[in-house]
Write a structure and sequence with these properties.
This protein is α/β, with parallel strands linked by helices. It is built from twelve helices and eight strands. It has two domains: about 160 residues, Rossmann fold; about 140 residues, Rossmann fold, CATH 3.40.50. Helix 1 crosses helix 2, helix 6 packs across helix 9 and helix 6 packs antiparallel against helix 12. The protein binds coproporphyrin III (HT9) and fe (ii) ion.
């Protein structure tokens, strides 16, 4: 077996989702605990999940990703176990960390399923990991819980650009030939409150990813835009805009006849993609007579999986370089103190 490495396990760290109708409300209560989000919004989103039988696609997507990652890691000569823990639903991170501690894991590398930096996608996961370690120790010496580092965000990794560009190309090619050349591309990501956006690189990174993909596909600046979806929170709190549906209405009014919506903010077809895009945005486009295609997500695309292996190899000291394209350097491995601050309260990490 190769090694020994600094790490003795990989930890897929994700959001979690309900796996049946009875899970939906407790899951949403976990997501929104302590968050300034009205109960009406919770109940509205519960209906989105219930319309899919109360089952979120995300947990199966995590299982599929692990099934793809395991052989790819072995192929690269890395024989490390992959554990899996979530923020909001089983398997919950404290249970996973307990298992890891029982198995004798000393130091693990967390693969967080978020390509961009903000409190939700970065520090909140680090807080979750911190609390999970505390739960494992339960008053005993903290040394009993595995130490955990996190891989860098990959918004500007060449493979992330390649995979998403190909998915968008396929959606464009699926449009009627006479509409293809004038088609508009709307890159979308989860909206976040301005209080979170102003203190992170989220919008800057998303813009860079969008720009790099548009450049790759030869889409001129006036034919693409970065927009947001799935706004939550209180109506009076400002969130990142424009909303994808408002944007589709605006480009349609300006004469656009076909649009591709590309959910670059998500690594797989999460509930937000299935509901807010495949249902809401698509319906809106149909009402207006706008030809609409939704580009796919990375999922278990072999190039995406290979990129994740590469990010792991970087941290094992086995990659020849840290690859990044465009105007910015590869993002940091270790988050500085002021990285993605908690906009709601003081952070324990
Ligand atoms: C930036 C970001 C990502 C991308 C980075 C990452 O992947 O982490 C993301 C991913 C996801 N968000 C998800 C689900 C939800 N997000 C919610 C609420 C919120 N998301 C926020 C931001 C983000 N969310 C924010 C600022 C809120 C408001 C409350 C708060 O400040 O935390 C709510 C509550 C209901 C609502 O209000 O919409 C739900 C159910 C799922 C699972 C989907 C599935 O089941 O397939 C995934 C992958
Ligand atoms: Fe979310």
């Amino acid at each position: 077996m190769p090694g020994p490495y600094v790490y003795d396990a990989i930890l897929l760290t994700s959001f979690g989702g309900p796996e049946g109708p009875d899970d939906v409300i407790p899951f949403l209560e976990n997501v929104l605990r302590g968050k300034p989000v009205p109960r009406e919004r919770l109940l509205e989103v519960a209906e989105h999940y219930q319309s899919f039988g109360g089952v979120s696609p995300i947990n199966q997507q995590c299982r599929d990703l692990i099934a793809a990652l395991e052989p790819a890691l072995k192929e690269a000569g890395v024989d490390l176990p992959i554990y899996w823990g979530n923020r909001n639903w089983e398997p919950m991170l404290p249970d996973t960390l307990k298992q890891m501690a029982d198995d004798g894991v000393n130091r693990a590398l967390a693969l967080v399923t978020s390509a961009y930096s903000c409190y939700s996608g970065c520090r909140q996961y680090r807080e979750d990991l911190h609390r999970a370690r505390e739960a494992v120790c339960e008053g005993e010496a903290e040394a009993d819980a595995p130490a955990i580092d996190k891989v860098r965000v990959w918004y500007n990794h060449p493979s992330w650009i390649d995979v998403n560009a190909d998915l968008i190309r396929a959606a464009l090619d699926d449009l009627p030939a006479e509409l293809r050349d004038g088609a508009h591309v709307a890159f979308t990501a989860h909206s976040i409150p301005m209080s979170m956006a102003d203190t992170s690189d989220y919008a800057r990174q998303l813009h860079e990813t969008s720009r790099l993909i548009a450049e790759r596909l030869d889409i001129p600046e006036d034919r693409w835009a970065l927009v947001y979806q799935s706004r939550s929170g209180r109506p009076q709190d400002p969130w990142l805009e424009p909303d994808v549906c408002d944007h589709l209405e605006a480009v349609h009014a300006a004469g656009v006849r076909a649009a591709v919506v590309a959910p670059i903010g998500f690594i797989s077809d999460h509930m937000e993609v299935l509901y807010d895009l495949d249902d809401e945005a698509k319906t809106k486009a149909a009402e207006m007579g706008l030809e609409f295609r939704r580009a796919g997500t990375a999922g278990t695309d072999p190039r995406f999986v290979a990129m994740l292996v590469e990010l792991i190899l970087e941290r094992l000291g086995e990659a020849s370089e840290k690859r990044a394209v465009g105007a910015f350097r590869p993002n940091h491995d270790v988050c500085p103190k002021n990285c993605c601050p908690n906009p709601y309260r003081a952070s324990p990490v």
